[in-house]
Amino acid sequence: MPFQEHFHRLKNARIRETFEPSGQFDSDPSLPEDLIMNAAGTFHSLFIGISEYHTSLGRVSFAADDSQWIAKVIAARTGSTPVLLVDGGVEDCRPTGRRVQMQLAGLIAQATPQDTLLVYFAGHITEAGGKPYLVMADSTLQNLHNTGLSLGKICDSLERADAGQKILILDAWRAVPGRPAASLTRSTIHELENSAGIYGITSCDEGQHALDWKEKKQGLFAWYFVEALSDEYEPKQGHEQTLNDLFEWTRDHVTSWAATKTTVQVPRQYFDGSSAPALPARGSHGPGLVECPSCGRHNPVAQTFECLLCRRKHLCASHEAHDFFGCVECEMNSSNRPAQATPTAATNPSESGTSPRKAPPQSRARPMDAADRLNKEARERLDSLDDYGAGD
After folding, report:
1. Residue boundaries of the structural domains of the chain
2. Terminal-to-terminal C-alpha distance of the chain
């Protein structure tokens, strides 16, 4: 088999981050079917992330990325297959009002009393007629009643769901460049406080707005929530980890970081006093999360790669060079390497007093640069793989 085909087969096997037309992650075929069920039944989840809006609303930085990132981490943590609706991808996954309603109705219909149902939204939430609406990708301020999703109706639908554990996380109220910062309103708090059987989280409190961590290219709440889901938060020995534990850890870190910027952001939780939803232990559904050595993100092992030149493992797929067998940093270092100087002999007759001598012929061989070494190592590794025999 040609080397390039060997490489692309290896690359495709390593990066398992694909989507079905329905907007679902590919489930990991290495997981036995019984592991897809956690201790509380099946974990159903819907993730909605919208960054690009109509000009009347303004863009929400990092919302789509936050939703994708948390969906990946939840999938690895629970062994489940989230439904992901974000903009900027395939059209079938664009979170229009009708598409989100259909996907939510489908999950609610599947849920049983032993199951957990989670809905996460990152984007705009605004009021119309004194009622809060989740603003969808096809919404404008003029058609919000027809295309937006009423928070009250979403809470009513979740209340009627048979799922034993119901979770609603709203990561909204982001600052929009050139516009007054939106803030969490009393009407949103009222809807969540009066919803029975739903464990709710908002990324900030009344009168506040949610911050972005521009250096991380993520929302502040999303960054620390993923950290809590990963190895950064360690529950007490013998203590079953609950969503309340993760929330408190996230809240404390978000609050502290915001204080360093002389501002206030305090995430808030809402539940009726019943026990907080429990989460599967880390590692109970296959390999856990690993930290990218370049950007610090936590990802499932199967969605990372190793650079064959610098030998760094667990790099995010976003750091992989397209036309180079390694990471973007190694590709840049290779392209910036200065060209080898070509030695020449003295040819000035006035200095030597003799006719100029021709420089010795240059060898066609040149020193091995970074790209050569990487290609050589990649070929050696691929040649040693038992999975790709000559007869494939």
Report:
1. 17-287
2. 7
DSSP string, 73-137: HHHHHH----EEEETTS-GGG---HHHHHHHHHHHHHH--TT-EEEEEEES-EEEETTEEEEPPT
Structural contact between residues 29 and 79, judged by C-beta atoms closer than 8 angstroms: no
- Rounded to 10°, the helix 220-229/243-260 angle is 140
Angstrom CA distances, 142 to 54, 59, 136, 345, stand at 11, 17, 13, 77
Domain 17-287 class, CATH top level: alpha beta
**Rounded to an integer, what distance in angstroms lies between the CA atom of residue 160 and that of residue 151?**
14
- Cα 336 vs. chain centroid, distance in angstroms? 31
Q: Is the pTM of this model over 0.90?
A: no
Main-chain dihedrals φ then ψ at residue 84, nearest 5 degrees:
-120, 120
Which residue has better confidence, 368 or 210?
Answer: 210
Spatial separation of the C-alpha atoms in residues 392 and 380, rounded to whole Å: 18
Q: How far is CA 167 from CA 43, 47, 118, 154, 268, in A?
A: 11, 12, 5, 12, 13
How far is 186 from 198, CA to CA, in rounded Å?
18
Phi, psi angles (nearest 5°) of residue 41: 105, -150
Phi, psi at residue 119, to the nearest 5°? -125, 125
% the chain with pLDDT above 90? 41
Rg (CA), the chain: 26
> Measured between alpha carbons, how far is 47 from 82 in angstroms, rounded to an integer?
7
